[in-house]
Input
Amino acid sequence: MVRDARDRDVIVENPSRIVSIGGAITEILYALGFEDRLAGVDTTSLFPAAALRDKPNIGYMRQLSAEGVLGLNPSVVFAMQGSGPKETMDVLEAAKVPLVLVPETFSEQGLVDKIKLVGHAMGVDARAACLTAAASGDLAQLRELRARVTKPVRVMFVMSLQSGRTMVAGRKTAANEILNLAGAVNAIDSFDGYKMINDEAIVAARPDVVLSIQRSSDNLDADQVYAHPAFALTPVAANKAFLQMEGLYLLGFGPRTAAAARDLSLKLYPSLAADAAKFAPATLTVNCRG
Output
């Protein structure tokens, strides 16, 4: 039995056919040695690459169909909090298949709790303890690296920039927390979530760096940012400071999050290279598969 994000107890009697909705969940299941039990994954399950290559794809986690999920005959469904649409989740909740809703809390503790919950639901608390110990150790090393940052840079995370409309990350987002973990400051601190902002707000925020994620389509590039009339008036254009990282790695808050924050920190603070080289994330090499 496991208590999930709905504050409900879910009994998982037969975890032999799993549908995983959420890249971090899939990553945890692979790390715990359950890839053979995965009956299907969603499109955010980008790591390891074998997940989307070898497993049936049920589509994007926020645009699911109940038929697509239940048609795989799962014995348990793990879904990240925020999966949808609501109508689909209502059908899955009403089905006889156990639905475990995994909390999405963007914090160090939230990352550890996510691993513990999935491991407990699968009946492998010892394996989960192995993985959480590795993740906790990585986060501790990251704190030591972060302590060496003497002048935090102001970073604006841009989700999209289309037709002059700029969507950025505020507080209580994965982007905000990964910036904190990397020793940076979010240039947007006046609202929660992701919102469109105008040119005046961009100029007023005075970001030193723009950070975005890599996409297969509608990909934001450096030239777009530097040519934008508002960013042209900020240190971003003057410094030619535009960074991109793979989305799940950067924002997924799975086992590799400390490694992603280390890599981002190194991009933001090249002077930390010698210290970063000493930080070898255990989650990238540890064997917690039983």
Summary: The mean pLDDT is 95. Residues 104 and 110 are 7 Å apart (CA to CA). The first helix runs from residue 23 to 31.
